[in-house]
Amino acid sequence: MCVPERNVCHGRHSRIGPRDGPGPCAGIPAEQMAFVRQVLDRVGDKWSLLVIAVLEGGPLRYTDLQRQAPGISQRMLTLTLRRLRQDGLITRTAYAEVPPRVEYALTPLGRGLHEIAASLVRWAFDHHEEIREHRAHATAQ
Amino acid sequence: MCVPERNVCHGRHSRIGPRDGPGPCAGIPAEQMAFVRQVLDRVGDKWSLLVIAVLEGGPLRYTDLQRQAPGISQRMLTLTLRRLRQDGLITRTAYAEVPPRVEYALTPLGRGLHEIAASLVRWAFDHHEEIREHRAHATAQ
DNA sequence: CTGTATCCACCAGGATACTG
DNA sequence: CAGTATCCTGGTGGATACAG
Q1: Predicted confidence band at B128 (pLDDT cuts at 50, 70, 90)?
Q2: Which residues form the HTH hxlR-type domain (chains A, B) (predicted)?
Q3: Which positions on chain D have an atom < 7 Å from some protein CB?
Q4: CB atoms A45 and B44 under 8 Å
C-alpha cells in the first residue's frame, strides 16, 4: 500500500519505481511503507501464513510441515521457511543425527504475526457472507 | 493459508488443486479457507490497500485516486476499483454530467478491512526494526 | 530425511494507444 | 474525464530430478 518506494510488490515484475515524489497516502508516512510492503508481501504470499498457522501447534520437522501443508511443493516449503527464518519469524534447529533431523518453531515475533493474521481470518469469517453476496450480485465478470 | 481449496493463490498459475484431502490446519476449518484466501488475495495485492487507505479520507474521483496513488497505472486502478466494488468494499457513483464525474467511496465493509489492515501496518511498524535486524544478520542470500 | 537445482507455465501488472 | 484494449515483461511457484 502507499507508494511502493521501489516496487517490491510480490516481487512480480517491477522494474521502475514510481516517477512521482513520495506521496503521503492517508496519514501513513511513506517512510514506513517499505516495511509495511514487506510484511504484506510475506502475509500475502501463498504459503507463509499457512506455515505459521501450522507451526502454531508446536515445532515440526520438515517432512511433517510438508504433510500438514497439503499441496506445498518442496521448493516452496524450503523457500518459505528460509524467508520466514530470515525475517526472524521462525527458528531452525538441526540435530546432528543420522538420519538428520531439523525442527522449525515459531519465534515470539512469528506468534505476533500469527495473531494479526488470525484477526484477519476472523474478519474474513465474520464478513464472508456479505462479500459473497456482493460478488454474486456483481453481474458480469 | 491452509489448503487453498482450488489454488486461488494470487491467481498466478494454479492449474491443479492439492491432491490431498482437506487438512485441518491449526484449528481453522478448511471450510473457511477459501474466504480467507480471497481476503488475503485482496489484501496482498499491490494496490487494493492503498486505494482503501486513500479513500479513508473521503470519496474521490477517478483522476484524484490516480493522483493520490502515485505509480498506479490506469489499468490497475480500474481493475482494483472493479474488484473492490465487486467485493462490496467500495461504491461507485456516476453523475450524469458533462464532463462525466464518478466518485468512489468506502463502504462500512471497506472501512472494516481498512481497520484490520491498519493493525497490520501498526504491527509492521512496531516490529520492523526487529525484522530488519534479522534480515541483516541473515548471512547469505 | 532434508533439502538444492533446473526448467517452464502462467498471470499480475506496467506501457501505450484508443474510445465514449 | 473516465475508462477500455492490447502487448509485453518477469517473477512466482509447480514439477521433476538430483544431492548431502
Answers
A1: confident
A2: 25-132
A3: 1-6, 9-17, 20
A4: yes
